[in-house]
Amino acid sequence: MKINIESLASHYMMTGKFDSHEAFKKKLTQALSKGPKVVQFRQKNIENNEYLILVKMAESVCRQFDCLLMLGTSVDVFVQTTADGLHLNSQVLNQYDQRPVSDKQLLSVSCHSLGEMKKAEKLGADILLLSPVKATSSHPELSAIGWPQFEQITRQFKCPVYALGGMKASDLNDAKQAGAQGIAVSSFW
After folding, report:
1. Phi and psi based region of residue 80 (left: phi greater than 0; alpha: psi -120 to 50; beta: remaining)
2. How do residues 91-121 score in pLDDT, each as one tens digit?
């Protein structure tokens, strides 16, 4: 799918924890009311029925704020939704030899290396996330690549790339200077 890069948000937000459906909707609404974001709905270890209920809520809120909704789920679950796109992590990326969604839907991929980014590009990824730019407690086994290496890798790709890993709102200018579309963070949640 062709993306109008100029209209693509500079913030890519991953959803986090919540206590109830009401709390989920409230947190998502509050986060999106503070400015445009691409939203990646990711919830692990919940039943498909529960997941789909939450996706319907997210679809409604994202439409209200004219935000893109990406789902970090299986293709089987994704096709049961009207979300804008599918998000693959680097482990799932290697399960595919061809694009897992139609060209009318978006595909975003989280990558940790130039090789993974090239694989994602071959699959036809529309959005890439490169991580970890900075050290992160969620992946302490991965060394931070830093802004110079991020820029060197990012400049090789035509599609939008978000900086991921240890990002804070204050990193947006550094990310943009390094060629990023913006930053990907869960702290906006």
Report:
1. alpha
2. 899 999 999 999 999 999 999 999 999 999 9
pTM for the structure as a whole: 0.93
Q: Return the structure tokens found at 150.
A: 């991020």
Distance CA 122, CA 97 (A): 9
How many domains does one find in the chain?
1
Residue 153 clears pLDDT 70, i.e. is over it: yes
CA–CA separation, 98 and 62 (whole Å) = 28
Q: What is the pLDDT averaged over residues 119-145?
A: 89
143 secondary structure, DSSP code = P
pLDDT attached to residue 84? 96
Q: 32 lies in which domain range?
A: 5-185
Q: In whole angstroms, what is the distance from residue 155 CA to residue 114 CA?
A: 11
Answer yes or no: are the C-beta atoms of 167 and 186 closer than 8 Å.
Answer: no
Contacts of 161 (CB under 8 A, 6+ apart): 117, 127, 128, 129, 130, 154, 179, 180, 181
Q: What is the CATH number of the domain that holds 133?
A: 3.20.20.70
